[in-house]
Amino acid sequence: MRKLAIFLVAGSCLAFGQDMPPVAKLLRELIHIDTANPPGNERKMADFLKPRFAALGFEVNIVDTPVAGKSHFIARLRGNGAKKPVLIAAHADVVGVEREKWTVDPFAGVIKDGYMYGRGAIDFKGGLAVFIEAVHRIAREKIPLERDIIFLSEADEEGGFYNTRWLAQQAWEKIDCEFALNEGGWIIRDKQGKVLYVSISTADKTSVALKLIAKGTSTHSSMPRPDNAIYSLARALVKLGGYETKVKLTSETRQFFGALAEVSPQPHATYFRDLLSSDPAKVAAADKFISEDTLLHAIMRDTIAPVMMNAGFRGNVIPGSAEATVNFRMIPGTTPEELADEVREVIQDPRVEVRVESFAASTTPMTPEQKADYEQSTRAMRTAKPSPQDNDLYRALARNAGIVYPTAKVTPYLFQAGTDSFAWRSKGIPVYGIYPYPIDHEDLKRMHGNDERVPVDSLVSGVELIYRTLVEVAAKK
Ligand SMILES: [Zn+2]
């Protein structure tokens, strides 16, 4: 497989001749570094980045976590200190792959038809490459700065304990800033390549796991009883599957759908407008239509997804209990306790206990102390305020998005998942999220999936956007 992949890489390079853009060359190198988490191996990324940043005059720092091979990388480009730093953060780890379902080697960085393929192409090695190119360009051009630019390559974002939450506890002085850029909103283009909108995330949804625990009589399977725990659990899950949470629009979601209404064809535009109306019948019809798009469905409401089940231990015993883990993604303002009540109401079965397990996002086994620590952080995360739209960083990003993508509407956005932004947002420091490359819905579907890819020309325009934004907020006037 490896040999074949190398052959494909060599063949596909021809399309770009000698002109493969530097950001694409860099992304290919980043994809080659296998940082699938677990275990992550982010130290390999730090070792790769260190000499490249040091050579351009950055002060570099590697912060090792207690897990061998898992490290954060921090590089600071000094300004004159007149203003507080701006931070630009990207996670180095990626999710694993189902290799047999990929049509290319997920760690080769194959280029085909204008796309670079590879795990992390969108989430978030593409962003890592774009952010690096942008800050390196500023360093190479020796632009005088009135504030430091801090670049951070994060460890353990994809479901671990030693992410930026941990880093903020250990080395806050190294990542303290006035505001920050991170992954988040989308630059969406249509099939013809026209960029429709740029959404900048100013808040994230948060994640919580509820456990459904059905109880019944444990007994010999030759004499079944009506209170079989597996049936109870199955009934509860079927009820949950037929249930839909109600529409909850935050102010940034309202702005987002307002922007969509302006750039969308009919009948979409009308439905987007109807969603914002005060007429419940219009909202319900709009919800039904819009919800066919799973991303839009997710930002309108708390979502429900059963993710794990566990029941039984041998073939001739009816188990006394059956469990399911259900992952909820909450709109800011919803509490896990409210959700648990809502779920009990739907299930209507006293034999099924509904329990909040708020630390579910982490895949790392934790000690009780670590669990308590994690719980406390996730609680802080749920009460974090959305980042404002009236500071220099938001304004610069929004303005330059309009310049680099003149056909696009620019809008704030509630991100449909969680990110590492909470390390700053929970301290009141604004963080703005963007996946800095135009992609379409087909590309978006592949994120965390198979044949993940990013358009090469989008990487190039992304560097322009981030470079211009950072120059605007950090260069000496
Ligand atoms: Zn990500």
Can you tag this structure with a few keywords?
477 residues, alpha+beta, eight-stranded mixed beta sheet, four-stranded antiparallel beta sheet, 16 helices
Task: Describe this structure as you would to a colleague.
With 477 residues, this protein is an alpha+beta fold. Helix content is 38%, strand content 23%. The strands form 4 sheets. Strands 1, 2, 3, 6, 7, 8, 15 and 16 form an 8-stranded mixed beta sheet that branches. The model is unreliable at 1-14 (pLDDT under 50). Bound molecules: zinc ion (ZN). Zinc ion (ZN) binds next to loops.
List the helices and strands and how they pair.
Layout: H1 2-13, H2 22-32, H3 42-54, E1 59-64, E2 71-77, E3 86-91, E4 111-112, E5 115-117, H4 125-140, E6 149-154, H5 164-175, E7 179-189, E8 195-204, E9 206-215, E10 219-220, H6 229-241, H7 251-263, H8 268-275, H9 280-290, H10 294-299, E11 303-311, E12 317-318, E13 321-330, H11 336-347, E14 352-357, H12 368-382, H13 392-404, E15 409-415, H14 422-425, E16 431-439, H15 441-445, E17 453-455, H16 456-474
Parallel strand pairs: 3-6, 3-7, 7-16, 8-15
Antiparallel strand pairs: 1-2, 2-6, 4-5, 5-17, 7-8, 9-13, 9-14, 10-12, 11-13
Helix pairs in contact: 2-4, 4-16, 7-8, 8-9, 13-16
The chain binds zinc ion.
